[in-house]
Design goal:
Blueprint (H helix, E strand, L loop, with lengths): L1 H24 L12 E2 L3 E2 L7 E2 L4 E3 L21 E5 L9 E4 L8 E3 L6 H6 L8 H4 E8 L8 H6 L8 E5 L1 H4 L17 H10 L4 E4 L10 H9 L5 E4 L9 E9 L7 E10 L5 H6 L18
Parallel strand pairs: 8-9, 9-10, 10-11
Antiparallel strand pairs: 1-2, 3-4, 4-13, 5-6, 7-11, 7-13, 8-12, 12-13
Helix pairs in contact: 6-7
Amino acid sequence: MVTANIQTTLLVTIILFTYSVADEAYPSPFISAETPCELNQGISLSPIRKEVYDEGHIFDISHRYHPDLPSWGSDEGIGQFLQLPASMKNGSLANNSEMKMPTHTGTHVDAPGHVYDHYFDAGFDVDTLDLRVLNGPALLVDVPRDKNITAEVMKSLNIPKGVKRVLFRTLNTDRRLMWKKAFDTSYVGFMKDGAQWLKDNTDIKLVGIDYLSVAAYDHLIPSHLVFLENRDIILVEGLKLDDIEAGIYNVHCLPLRLLGAEGSPIRCILIKFLVCGPERRNLNRSSSQRRAPLQFVQNKV
């Protein structure tokens, strides 16, 4: 009897542990404080989709893919990009989807072969991008809302030397351009002189922005050529930067390993950068005060 009780207790413990773990990744069909479930003939579930995790410490800055996501040069979005050729409802053993869309869709990364054909032929694809650049401390900055990113704008941001990763939040976020199906040529991006200033006067190697191109529409190719010429700057485009305080975070971006592709969808997250003492007081200063060079960033970003 004692053995049976022990076995029963162990079994209950394992079941409860299993469903508590399930809650971390997917809502459990039996234990859910956030989503009600209805048990009829089967289990009716409502999935929980989040933008912020771990009580506000982790931010998903990638856009969700859906048919109305804007696509370059299109008024109709990316359209129906998912198909289900193998469906359990039609007798297949499992559901298996197929996906078809341009590689420069949604939140994505550019490789040097995007605008340099000799780099494309040489194999400088997304599989060759340096993960050290795509992961690490980063600075999220607000760009003046009345203009594209010129050399003058770059200089005014006072980004300290030593900062290697910067995410530029612009009027694109305020206008919610990534939520509008029709492609908009009036988006904010880098002018050629702004790209050149960044390249010549900063240590930035990861450039992120909040629409489908880091380059302003009128300087589309010239700005890309400046950024990608030396293959040491990585461009991440189409970031979701709304409702996040400007400041320092750890950024983590991982592209697909698409051999031969000059672009790839990418999943990016920001994790709050935790510091103590005087450094924390510096982080909590107003945005106008933070425009002054942040000396402590130099050794961390």
